[in-house]
């Protein structure tokens, strides 16, 4: 039976969609839109109490936190190399990168709010935008540093679900921080987006609904 993924194209639900494709798990996508009120439907509230995507119906349960879903899928599915064993030397690093993606994601979310969802200029704060952009740029240095030893992915052993978490976040972060100063990170993101499962997940989900520009400059002032 296929999992059911409640999703907005381009949102955190893409992490789950991508991982399901990496695992070869069948998935049915129920698409929502950002501003049409569909997330406020009472039926969706029973699946996601914060009324946010993703929500994943799988194994007789509903899960609604992307990082938890990624870890659950890795732990409950067998025959893959997307998660180091509990007693592996890489397990701690895997968990750290898995959750560090959300450290970056918090900055992206704050910038999304300022640039995309506060529609009038008087609502926006150039000060907040500047601070959050700088914080995001600083946080990205850890990713760049991890990749400078020539490895292709975050773990020396190769691709894992931590890269799924991080790849989604980086594809959003590049909208606000130019990757010219992060050449290893830029090349890493390109490798991730070239994966067959990434491409298949993107095709299944459809065009992202958030960004109308490739890059968002800070306002003057």
Global shape: globular
Order of helices and strands: EHEHEEHHHHHH
- Residue-averaged pLDDT, rounded? 96
Number of strands: 4
Instruction: Report the span from N to C terminus.
Output: 54 Å
Main-sheet strand order equals 2-1-3-4
Strand content: 5-15%
Structural class: alpha+beta
Low-confidence segments: none
Largest β-sheet summary:
4 strands, mixed
Could you please describe the fold and organization of this structure?
There is one protein chain. By secondary structure, the protein is of the alpha+beta class. It has helices at residues 13-23, 42-45, 66-76, 91-117, 126-147, 161-173, 183-193, 196-205, and strands spanning 3-7, 27-31, 55-58, 61-63. It is 49% helix and 8% strand. The protein has a 4-stranded mixed β-sheet with strand order 2-1-3-4. Helix 1 (13-23) links the parallel strand 1 and strand 2. Helix 1 packs parallel to helix 3 (66-76). It starts with a strand and ends in a 16-residue tail after the last helix. The model has no long low-confidence stretch (mean pLDDT 96).
